[in-house]
Amino acid sequence: MKLKTLVKSLALTAGIAASFSSQADFLDFSVDETPYGGEVVTADKLNGGYFELLSFDDAGNFTATAFASMNQLFGNDGTANSSQIGSVIGANYSLYATFTATGTVMTPGAQGANSSLSAQSGSFSLFLDPNQDTTADVNSPSDLSMTSDDMLLGSSSNLAQNVGLLYGFGGVFDFMFRDFELTADGDTYFVSPTPFYMSVRVDGDFDTIPLEGEQLVTGDVSAVFDVPEPSTIAVLSLGLLGLGATSRRKS
C-alpha cells in the first residue's frame, strides 16, 4: 500500500471513531479456558480476520453478511499475545462471529464521502467452536458448516449508530450494536466483568468497490471492551481494521 493511501486510511478511520460519542479504551476481561485445557486468563482484546459479502440492488439498497474468526486473545493494552497471557485460544478452541446489516446507499455520501451506507437493521452473534472445524462459504458467509458442537456466547439485533463511507481510495465503516446479551454458555466463558451486557462496535475498511451486484470485502477484526462513561456497562468493540485490505484483490 502506498504511504499516502495508508495515511489517508488511518486518518479516515480515526475521524470516524471520533465522530461517535463513545471512545474505545482497553478494559480487562476474564475468560475461563479450563474446559479446553487452559486456565482462567485475563485479556483486553480479541483479534482475527473476516470476510464480508455486500450485495446492492438497483434501488439504492444494500445487504451485508460477514463471517469473522477471532482466534487470538491479547492483553497488556493489546500488546501481549495469546501465548504471553497463557491463553489456549487458536490452539485448543476457536471463536467466531457473524454479522448482518440491511440499509440504503446515498450518493454523494455523508462526511464528504463519494457515497455512504446507512443500515436500518442488523444482527451480531458470537460463537465458540470447541473442535475448530466450523467453516463459512465465502459466497454466502452466513452458510456455516460443522456447527453441531458450537456454542452461542451472545448476540444482538439492536443496530444503533452506524455509517459506511466510500472514498476514491477505499472505504471504512463503523456499526454499533446495543444490548449484546450473553447466553448461559457465554456466562461460563466470560467470567468477568459481571453483569456482561454490552454494545458491540464493528469497524473496518475495504477497497473501492462498485455499488452494484455482489462485492467481497476482507480484512482484520478485533474486539475490545470500552467504558465511555461511568454509567455505561462494558462495550465490546469489533474493529474490522483491514488497513491492508486496499492491497488485496476481491474474488
Task: Describe how the helices and strands are arranged.
Layout: H1 3-18, E1 29-32, E2 40-43, E3 45-56, E4 61-74, H2 82-85, E5 94-106, E6 115-129, E7 135-137, E8 140-145, E9 151-156, E10 158-167, E11 170-182, H3 184-189, E12 190-192, E13 198-206, E14 213-226, E15 235-239
Parallel strand pairs: 13-15
Antiparallel strand pairs: 1-2, 1-12, 3-4, 3-14, 4-5, 5-6, 6-9, 6-10, 7-8, 9-11, 10-11, 11-13, 14-15
General description of the model:
The protein is mainly beta and 251 residues long. The chain has one domain. 10% of the residues lie in helices and 52% in strands. The chain has helices at residues 3-18, 82-85, 184-189; strands at residues 29-32, 40-43, 45-56, 61-74, 94-106, 115-129, 135-137, 140-145, 151-156, 158-167, 170-182, 190-192, 198-206, 213-226, 235-239. Strands 3, 4, 5, 6, 9, 10, 11, 13, 14 and 15 form a ten-stranded mixed sheet that branches. The longest helix has 16 residues, at 3-18.
